[in-house]
Write a structure and sequence with these properties.
Layout lengths: L5 E6 L4 E7 L1 E5 L2 E4 H24 L3 H26 L7 H4 L9 H19 L3 H26 L13 E5 L6 E3 L2 H19 L8 H17 L8 E2 L2 E2 H29 L7 H41 L1
Antiparallel strand pairs: 1-2, 1-5, 3-4, 5-6, 7-8
Length: 320
């Protein structure tokens, strides 16, 4: 255990006294495996499993989800790194430093943008409905983000300004002389994403148009991130503007406008005699039909057997 990987943390307002966490979970063949990487990986796996589950309801196969997920993860990581490097080029003196991802420096919006572009291209190649694909992927990403933020907790990073708020987080790195108390912005964002995930899943099966769910995800996350980013002390800047706060605000406004337009269109379509028919409704009906057929099969077979026996008896009677 190295002292430079230890972080002292406390939440005195919540009755949690000082404790120590290690950024490193374990070492494998001399390589450090950090909690940040473990939690990000677990988040990716959960997002994939969720997309597979929703994919079945949306008529998208597991193999297609897996193929797209592998490329989305690869390019998402590249995008998250590129976004960070472009916003803070002064931190890097060589290409080796740029590609040294374990050294730190990923931006979630860069990953989201690159991941979405990958899915757009992949959906065209595989001839999959893009909006349905994004709908089944969006909430899973929220879970991955909620879990991934706890990687920031173990690293003692992504915190806000100093405060005396009841949920303040005490933080002391190995080279700090004393503990300081900050807004636990990693916790705010994690809880915000979990709440959004729960609410979006409550309305998923009642969606009125393809693309509604992913718009709700971007809008919900953008609204929360817009305020949470304003509390942080490590924001990426473009001139005088916090980049993530700006992107979050634009996402919230744009997605809200598109949601309103989508609902209005769905309402007009309903008045005209049409309505949105979800793929998962057809899948559910098909499954119900299959189950009904399975339940009716024994009775049908028994009836057919009785008819056969009666016919054979009549034939035997004539022969006699």
């Amino acid at each position: 255990m190295n002292s430079d990987t230890l972080v002292k943390i406390a939440f005195p307002g919540l009755g949690i006294e000082t404790f120590t966490v290690d950024k490193v979970a374990f070492s494998l063949f001399g390589l450090e495996v950090r909690w940040y990487g473990i939690l990000i990986t677990c988040g990716i796996i959960l997002a994939y499993l969720y997309a597979c589950w929703r994919g079945k309801q949306e008529g998208i196969g597991d193999e297609d989800i897996l193929d797209l997920a592998m490329f989305a993860v690869i390019f998402g990581i590249i995008g998250a790194r590129a976004y960070y490097v472009l916003m803070k080029p002064e931190e890097f003196d060589s290409f080796l430093e740029v590609i040294n991802i374990p050294g730190g420096g990923l931006a979630i919006y860069g990953g989201i943008i690159a991941g979405c572009l990958t899915l757009i291209i992949g959906s065209k190649i595989k001839k999959i409905n893009l909006l349905r694909l994004l709908d089944c992927a969006g909430p899973g990403v929220m879970v991955a983000q909620a879990l991934g933020r706890w990687g920031n907790f173990f690293n003692g990073e992504a915190y806000g300004a100093e405060t005396e708020i009841f949920c303040r987080m005490g933080l002391q790195h190995y080279n700090w002389m004393s503990m300081h108390y900050y807004h636990p912005t990693f916790l705010y964002e994690s809880l915000w994403n979990l709440l959004g995930f729960a609410l979006i899943n409550l309305v998923y099966r009642k969606k009125k148009f393809d693309g509604q769910i992913v718009l709700m995800y971007f809008g919900w996350y953008g609204f929360g991130r817009m305020f949470i980013e304003g509390l942080r002390t490590d924001s990426l800047y473009l001139g005088q503007f916090r980049v993530s706060q700006l992107v979050a605000g634009i996402s919230f406004v744009a997605c809200t406008a598109l949601l309103i337009a989508g609902f209005c269109h769905a309402h007009r379509r309903k008045l005209a005699g049409g309505d949105y028919t979800a793929v998962y409704a057809k899948v559910t009906e098909t499954a119900a039909d299959v189950q009904k057929q399975e339940e009716e099969r024994p009775a049908k077979e028994s009836s057919e057997n009785q008819a056969t026996e009666t016919k054979e008896n009549q034939t035997n009677g004539k022969a006699d």
